[in-house]
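TA notes. Do not distribute before section.
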Amino acid sequence: MLSKMMINNSNRCHSCLRWMMLHVHKYRPAHCDSIRRSVSHSHEDRAHTKVTVNVKSKVTDFYKEIVNKGTLSYDEGQYQVATYLDKLRSVAEKYLAQPPPMPSSTSSAETSSSTQSVSTAAASSASKPTSDVSSSTRRLRGLYLHGPVGTGKTMLMDLFFSLVEAPPGTKRRVHFNDFMLEIHKRIHQHNQRWIQSRGREVHLDLSPERDSIRCVAADISSEARLLCFDEFQVTDICDAMIMIRLFDELWLRGVVLVATSNRPPEDLYLNGLNRQYFLPFIAQLQRHCVVRGIGVEKDYRLDGEPLVDNYLVPNSDANLARLRDLFSAALGGSPAGPVEVPVMMGRTLQLAAADLQRGVCLVDFHSLCVLERGASDYSALCQHVHSVFMHGIPELSVLNHNEARRFITLIDAIYNANVRLVFCADQPPLQLFRELSAAELSGGDTLGTDHSWAGDRGDYSIREERLLRGAQQTLHRVSESLSVGGESSSSSDEEDVQVEVNILEGELASIQELGFAFRRAASRLVEIGSRSYMQRWREKHRMS
């Protein structure tokens, strides 16, 4: 029995299955019914285990074959999810082969208000893929898979995505950060076209064609009817408000959502500003997707065999000199100089030392994470280089949460693009992100006088730090008053406190999400420095 197999777990990288699957998808023509590929995985002894994959096989068959080869350790939680994905794949292939359903004449707002609660029938069918039977056109329910970092969620979703036989142009896999960035860009472009064509009268135009979110959703649904999202999360009020309308329109058009996340649906955008307006989206998500926990706690990324010199601790002169030597070796004798990388909408990213022909750059933490950067900058960087050498990374916490958030977004971009990262930091990956105690958050005069982490950003960062501590103190006082039952205050005082909390909630939602993001980034940093990750990097970029 497979469940009784005992496999040595030492130094085996759990993410190898994701690498194999990506290679199958990369070389497989969309119109082929069947194809066989041989892929290999490098063990610590550098021996190669050949695995032959038939793309018509089931997700569970693929999973069992790799386990039997000894490349992957069996995990019951992963196998149960793979079993469900086989069911979903079978139904999805039939669903995608049919013409897409036409959205009804009912507006998305009316549809949303009428379907905020999950029906009893849908809730009872959570163990199998079903269709939404509340409308005249049946729509397939997708899957929302959540669980801790490094437990194989992305691996299984990518495997499912590659094995789904669908007509060309009907499925798409994308990181959720990149997807929302694309949505913002499309909305901006749509609005600009209308302004150019209508001028000042554009705001008087109430036609459906003027609705940018509706038009963008129509374009997205025409490009893909199966959307697979990695790292589904909501931390920004702009994204939250757009998603309510956007996904209503996508679901009306029969788009199927398969997503991975570190949070269950009910915790999305937790404590976010005006979260009550986001709750209907959560109800719709639970209606249109089967919600399932992966049931795995172990972070398999930590099993990878680390390589020497992939990260250097601490930020010392000797380590910086070593990093520069590694950068020079990657240049292969070519000169490096200032470079402008095109980003989007006419913006550029300045790199102080890079050679885009060689695909390498040397950057510091300040230029990429202290200055105002975003996902589009990091995506552009990873499109132009395959190796990033970075120095000056400090210990990170919520006190420098803006820098921490940018660094986490950078790590996500590097990881998803399979770019090499060599860095100097104050701490090793698992200690780089520090969760502060309640005493440190509440601050006090002693902690409050230390602003060395603010660098040259001026008084704004100091005020922001004090605001964060004020938010924590305010929430603590309100919580204590409610739970202990202290003296009641006047109605006007209660209103003042509520207003103050609401103003800070938008920032707190993003800050509180950092706890999950910290663990994900640390886990990915460990894998980025592993032998198996570098093996995939060499394969992708054809490095010797």
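Switch to the second chain here.
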Amino acid sequence: MACLKYSGIMKEVSMAVAAMLIFSGCNHLPPPPVAMEPGATDSVMLNYATAENGYAAAYYKLHDDLLQEIKTELLQREENSLPACAADLNSCLGPDGQEKLYVTKDKEVRLHRNSQDEDELVFVEQDPAFQVRVYLSSSGKYFFIESFSDETTECRFLPTDLKNLKPVLFLERTTGHWYTADHFGGMFFWILSNQFAPTRKLFVTPVNLPGAKGWNTVIMPNDTIFIEGYSVLDQKYLALIQRKNQSVALQITDIVPPKKTTDKVENKISFKEPEGRITNITYEKKEKRIIFHYSSMKSPLTCFSYGIDSKRLSIRWRKQIKGYDPDNYKAEVLWVPQKNGSPVAVSVMHRIDLAKPDGQNPLLLIPFLSGFPGDREGFNPSMISLLDRGFYIAYAHIGMEMDSEQLKYTTEIIDIAEFLVKMGITLKGQITLMGMKTGATLALAAAAENPDIFKAVVAEYPVCEEDSKFQKIPALLILSGLQKGQKADFGVIKKVAKMRKNKADCNILLIQTELNPVKEEDILRVAQKWTFIHSCYGLGGSLRTYGI
């Protein structure tokens, strides 16, 4: 592909013409959109985004065979890998099914009653950096309204009898403080928090005293064990989900000590595989049996049954993934030393029979911000499409500290990449970085700092400033959309336009700005990401090319 450089002001008419030409269907990649000058109006920027989307569409058209093959693989695997149901954090039904609390525009919480024609506004989040989600307590007696950003949460509650529609606040937000609340019956709320405790601690507080004065610690923080989650079972047992050295365990203890020492329950179920996740913990009282779901980087979703008295662990069922055999893959944890801090854990997985001993293995490196919700991937069936084409997948768990500068984490990512090269797993220039939100911002910064070590970058919803000084960047795919209500993310659009003007290399640069919200698990979007990555390595063939 020829390397062409464009400059000048793109008028609204020329933008529309460019978009039409790109979408008209051509068998080669047209020139990229003309760089947009500073001071463009919203209308010009929207037209520029349309032109960029058209350019990306033309790129995927060139790789349509690979795109359709990967999309088919993803569809087949997703059919058999998803749980029977998933939590919807944009709405929740009351216990009698007659009321529903739901979120609109990511900011507004409304109440729908079957008995009324008009819905009622319950809560509005005013901070543009925060979104809102809602959920029902485990007891079914309370609605919870949680305002959240990447690093901070603030929680309110409403009794489900809805006699009072004014949400009650637990604790005002402070930067870096993450907490979440639940109610399992009885007179107490349970609160998991990282306040002054990076590994988290567990509180209870009386229902009639939800503020900080009522918070009493029931599980103290442990420097080496991270509390990932918990559940209260039958008001009798506390089930703690704990993580140590990237392995997960379920610890079950009595909430109230029994009268007889011999009746004391103290059970622990440990799993050794990296990136393990334990979810959906329930209790069958009659059989005294705990049921839970487990998955890991290597193991698909599995339902386990555990007897409190017998201490016997058994499998109820396991999701079957078409063409996937866990024994064909290896997953392990590597510890990357840091010059000014603790070692960083990196979970690495690859297909055993496709590993190249000379290190010429393509590698996807994904930085996660450890300590915040949702930083565990568990089993991701979409990764099989990469693994079965010879990729190594690496999850790097970077411990975020609120008072540290971005440069610290950018340096950590580069150090991790260099370590993987030094270990002989991959080579310089064979690593793709991929991140979401803050992780995407760090990935872009690392690529700008050391572009030669990376082959490509996939940045999803990065937080972008306009001071783009990229002279040389790896192949780059940026995914953006409508994150703040109905306002387009013009910061990203401006950044890409400036990149186009300043970049002096011939590497591909794509941005997809969705005019409608896109679910993270959207099959087409994942297929496009994988197609982009494969094309950067020249891996455009069918799996038959790899003897699979």
